[in-house]
Design brief:
By secondary structure, this protein is mostly helical. It contains two helices and no strands. It starts with a helix and ends in an 8-residue tail after the last helix. This is Flp pilus assembly protein, pilin Flp.
Length: 62
């Protein structure tokens, strides 16, 4: 039993998977932080665009 436990501790087959999971989580976290940083500005810009579009008159040529 002791030999199997020592072999388990030396086994590195899952190390690359763990690294990729950690790196992916870091990238997702950075993406969420970036969106959170610019969210207020994007919402204000979208509101300004909606206001500008809704106040325009369309000339249908009649």
């Amino acid at each position: 039993m002791k030999k199997r436990f020592e072999q388990f501790l030396k086994d590195e087959d899952g190390a690359a998977t763990v690294d990729w999971v950690v790196l992916t989580a870091a990238v997702v976290g950075l993406g969420v932080a970036a969106v959170d940083t610019v969210e207020e500005g994007i919402n204000a810009l979208a509101s300004d665009i909606a206001t500008a579009v809704s106040t325009k008159e369309v000339d249908n040529g009649d």
